[in-house]
Request: fold
Amino acid sequence: MKNRHFYIAAILFAVAFHLVGCEKLTVPTITDATVEELTPGTISAKATMTSKEIDEYGLIYSTKNTSPDLNAKDAIVNGNLEGSNFTAEVTLKTNTTYYFVFYATNEKGTTYSTATKLTTSLYNPSIDDNPFPKP
Reply:
């Protein structure tokens, strides 16, 4: 009889521990999404992506689609996700308008950020860029 109570107590403890330790899996959230140009044609993208588990994530961009998504044939950059901080750096054409959307996916679904529009600067060479400098 003692063994039976021990097993019942152990099972109840395991169930209680499992229920307390489990967070409900939810669709990822994306906040603080920013895209900025570092130099002509080079952009830095940052966002906060939160969820108990994120299976896929990245930055989607397009020159034609104002709301890029995974179903379109738009460009995808995987970037880096450390904790909830996503970062990516991309080199693009200068003097071109791009539309950017961040995404995060888990088994509950995919979340997209609001689209961001950015036009890269026109590359303006300086005197230091001259491959044939005057002596």
Q: What stands out?
A: The chain is about 15% helix and 45% strand. Residues 2-21 form the longest helix (20 residues).
